Amino acid sequence: MNNQREPDNRVSHQPAFVLHTYPWKETSLIVDVLTRDYGRLSLVARGAKRPMSQYRGMLCPFCPLAVSFSGKGDIKILTKCEWHGTLMLPDTVLMSAFYMNEILVRLLPKREPVPKLFHSYFTTLRNLADKNKPHVSLRIFELDLLETLGYGVPELREGTNYQFVRGDWIQNTQTPESTGVAWYTLAAMRERRIKEGAQEKEVKGIIRDVISFYLDDKPVNTRKILSELKKF
């Protein structure tokens, strides 16, 4: 999928994924997409709800697309959408994929190029589809998103433990060495060499606390839904 710039604020064949859609007027949709070169955008898909719409069945999450759009405002006009295959996600990982979309919509600012994060998102979806270390892959995506936002794990001193306090990693100076997060765990997070099993579970809890802070402690809807489903 190649990107092509055109005059009059038109963009053609931009690699993209649908993150979220919601109704707009009687027959149209607002489509929140993650694009490779323009970051997160909101596009109006005019007439998308009509039975004979060119977009019918195409504006689905987790499908590689190439979108064309135009316009000068905050919300662009979707002019063309091309389908580039489907990633067959097993039911066991669907909520993980929807969780990725939710935190992107809630944390990622609009209209900022994020080619590395786009690649990370695509790679994670493929790993989820292939059942290739799905839990570790999801942790790496979360870390890539936090790093893109400027919240990555900093270089820390070896041989000590840290705690995440109000958006910063603070060295434990008045608590026993057994408390907090060990420097080698944070190093594994920073270097993306998380091991499956116990370390991945530890990292999951750490990242959950960090993301919760940047969401102002507001709940993640997909986590809530998954928790409810586990009751049945």
UniProtKB/TrEMBL annotation:
Keywords: DNA damage, DNA recombination, DNA repair. SUPFAM superfamilies: ArfGap/RecO-like zinc finger (SSF57863), Nucleic acid-binding proteins (SSF50249). InterPro entries: ARFGAP/RecO, DNA_rep/recomb_RecO_N, NA-bd_OB-fold, RecO, RecO_C. Pfam families: RecO_C, RecO_N. One of its GO terms (biological process) is double-strand break repair. GO terms for cellular component: bacterial nucleoid. Residues 13-84 form the DNA replication/recombination mediator RecO N-terminal domain. Coiled coil: none annotated. PANTHER family: DNA REPAIR PROTEIN RECO. Involved in DNA repair and RecF pathway recombination. Belongs to the RecO family. This is DNA repair protein RecO. It comes from Turicimonas muris. The lineage of its organism: Bacteria, Pseudomonadati, Pseudomonadota, Betaproteobacteria, Burkholderiales.
